[in-house]
Amino acid sequence: MDVEGLKKYSALHPKPAGLTLQYGTAGFRSKAQQLEHVMFRMGMLAALRSRATGATIGVMVTASHNPEEDNGVKLVDPLGEMLHPSWEEYATQLANAEDQELQKIVTEICQKAAVNQQKDASVFIGRDTRPSSKELSQAVIDGISVLGGQYHDYGLVTTPQLHYVVCCQNTQGQYGKPTLEGYYQKLSKAFTELIKKSLSSGEAQRQLKIDCANGIGALKLAEMETYFPKEVQIQVYNDGTKEKLNHLCGADFVKVHQKPPKGLDMKPNESCCSFDGDADRIVYYYKDTAGHFHLIDGDKIATLISIFLKELLAKVGQTLKMAVVQTAYANGSSTRYLEETVQVPVYCVKTGVKHLHHKAQEFDVGIYFEANGHGTVLFSKAAENTIRQLAKEEKDDAKREAAKVLENMIDLINQTVGDAISDMLVIEAILALKGLTLQQWDALYTDFPSRLLKVQVADRQVIDTTDAERRAVTPPGLQEKIDALVKKYKLSRAFVRPSGTEDVVRVYAEADTQENADALAHEVSLAVYHLAGGKGAPPQPI
Ligand code: G16
Predict the structure, then answer these.
(1) Cβ of 22 less than 6 Å from ligand 1
(2) Catalytic choice (10, 30, 50, 64)
(3) Residues 213 and 287 in one domain
(4) pTM
(5) Which Pfam families does the record associate with it (predicted)?
(6) Residue 48 near residue 106, CB atoms below 8 Å
(7) Which domain range does residue 513 map to?
(8) Atom of ligand 1 at shortest distance to CA of 25?
(9) Cβ contacts of 31 within 8 Å, gap of 6 or more
(10) DSSP symbol at 74
(11) What's the rounded Cα separation, in Å, for the pair 509 and 528?
(12) Lower CB count within 10 Å: N or C terminus of the chain?
């Protein structure tokens, strides 16, 4: 280790005194000005992780759905997955080490994780459009360089694009070319094949309005435009040229507030969708002729994909094991519909795509979506091989054609992580192939009324949960209080959990009417405020 170099560079990226951060749901998130040292150190950690795995590691500088003033960083493991949990601990340790302890902590990590410091290290870097992101990604580069690692800076990319190129690089091109061009070509080829099939069966031109949250999605859709088949017309809104990132727009805003984003004029029954700031989430919506807003969230996306894939698997005569993975935020009505009507097993895990991804890997076809629109589909290697073979060799025309559709779906889906662009194309292809309108899709089931709120507390870690975050273990008395409140309403449930990306406690409630869901969420918020050390003024009724 270049000890002098380490001293020099860590002095350039000093740790603010007394600051402690934790590698949370999606890496580190905080105010951008607090993160320079974290970026530098995550550059170092990525170099170590690369040496430990003998593969290229990704570092993405983004705070995704958080406000523009925030930033964040997450590491991407060799196959494009989230960083292995055992290394999250090292990340937290390294980020919180005092400047003079850095060398010691690096040595400790090398010992614990059996890192050979003589090996080559390779890191891919990407960043979102936040004003702070460029400088922070330079700090990442300094961290990689100080430990003698090589890097490739992809500059402005969506989070899922970075996951994709990392996976391509480490699978020697088997997953695709590790370039943005390779990504656009792979997705557009599969999409064009699928959409052609629907157009030949008389489907009209498809139109979609996209709110890009004033983030990276707009830039990348513009780059991709030349690859799109002409039969699909997209109109981009909130492209970041006028307004602030994620401000009153984007997938998180639309989902949480259950209303359209600012800056998108919506006519009745027009198809619209929103990406989030780094384009790894998507939700759909429309306004009916009476002017009512209808949200089609991650649960309904998972349902549409499940129905479609189940039908195709039946057509090709395959009994592959398929399952859906959700979190506690999944609307109860979606879980019931998936289990009872679609007849697919459903599993509930903790919030965070890393948990959903992990569970989905247990199946031949694992569909995972968070209600907030973050998700994808995983095909096991064996399932993928079977499908590709059937698409090539199956003698029965109908079966072969169904296998070809499945094969194109496999290529269109970004299996490394939830991807708004890829998910949008998957949804558009399914709707076109099934000849479904957004309204028909929405009518599959009716969501139970729900409400999601945030409560400020002094230390959100006083809340500890169990049972996939559906029950609070601490502080004492909180769960009992929630149970009593839930009993007051029909068809109700509620839970609370500390956010891993914002300094808040999240409260979720469902009930038979919107008024009751709102009232229950408010009462639970008050319970959190009183029992978990609320900050500022008590939560107000909705
Ligand atoms: C991140 C995670 C998601 C998670 C969301 C909210 O999304 O990737 O899996 O659902 O944060 O997490 P929390 O409730 O813990 O704040 P994103 O889009 O911000 O990266």
Answers:
(1) no
(2) 64
(3) yes
(4) 0.96
(5) AMG1_II, AMG1_III, PGM_PMM_I, PGM_PMM_IV
(6) yes
(7) 450-531
(8) 15
(9) 69, 70, 71
(10) E
(11) 13
(12) C
